[in-house]
Specification:
The protein has 237 residues and is of the alpha/beta class. It has 2 domains: 1-113, Rossmann fold, CATH 3.40.50.150; 114-140 and 168-227. The protein contains 9 helices and 7 strands. The chain has a 7-stranded mixed β-sheet with strand order 3-2-1-4-5-7-6, sandwiched between helices. Helix 5 (119-131) packs across helix 9 (198-215). The longest helix is centred in the last third of the chain and has 18 residues, at 198-215. The chain starts with a helix and ends with a strand.
Length: 237
């Protein structure tokens, strides 16, 4: 939630128009976006997530659709996406289309994890390739471009700001394994694990558990202070 609030705080004055929460999930950012005093539209592909977002009472409209395909029918004041677009391909095309849907003076604000080169994420892929060569679909991994690529793409369209922040997360011990393994297997590692059968998954998890402590040692109480990098970008047209 903290990265989402930091992203929202970077957004300046907005023109008339709706606020779009693109990839709204359970609506965790809904209360903060509602404070902008605009029509608030949430978009997500998961009906279960939209049901949770609806229960927040923050959204004027909720749309069940693929965030890589959906575009607002009218110009928006703010298109806000928190930790969602990394799962969507072809950022060059998508961000260009979204920018074209902003009202003059409107803002596109995006936050994505930028952790793929860290041991927490890199070990999943390197170990999977070592154990099961050719089985892993790298195209299914989260797509995040280099900051310079986003700048080249967006700077002709308006005023661009790009920055990264590393957040330190205090991960509690988990009786079933290393806290970083438990944290990443539910997000980044899902596309890796889903192509493997149960025995293969167990083999990969065992290998990951064997090495992850060297990069993220646990304290005496079993906790891990886990650095997690996030990429932010805003475009104001």
């Amino acid at each position: 939630m903290r990265p989402a609030i930091d992203l929202l705080r970077s957004v300046g004055p907005l023109p008339e128009g709706a606020v779009i929460d693109l990839g709204c999930g359970s609506g965790a950012v809904g209360p903060a976006l509602q404070q902008l005093g605009r029509k608030l539209v949430g978009v997500d592909l998961s009906r279960a997530m939209l049901d949770q977002a609806r229960r927040t009472g923050c959204y004027d409209e909720l749309v069940e659709d693929d965030v890589s395909l959906w575009l607002p029918s009218e110009q928006a004041a703010l298109i806000f996406s928190n930790a969602a677009l990394q799962w969507v391909g072809d950022h060059a095309n998508l961000l260009t289309l979204l920018a074209a849907k902003l009202a003059p003076g409107g803002t596109l604000a995006v936050q994505m994890p930028h952790q793929n080169n860290a041991p927490s994420h890199r070990f999943w892929l390197s170990l999977a390739e070592e154990l099961f060569p050719g089985r892993i679909d790298h195209d299914a991994q989260p797509e995040v471009l280099l900051p310079a690529e986003y700048h080249r793409l967006l700077s002709p369209l308006g005023k661009v700001a790009i920055w990264e922040t590393e957040y330190y997360q205090d991960l509690a011990p988990d009786g079933e394994g290393h806290p970083v393994r438990r944290f990443t297997e539910a997000t980044f590692a899902r596309p890796v694990l889903t192509v493997l059968n149960e025995d293969e998954q167990a083999q990969l998890i065992t290998a990951y558990e064997r090495v992850i402590g060297s990069a993220y040692p646990t304290g005496p109480d079993g906790r891990v202070l886990f650095p997690f990098r996030r990429l932010f970008l805003t475009l104001t047209v």
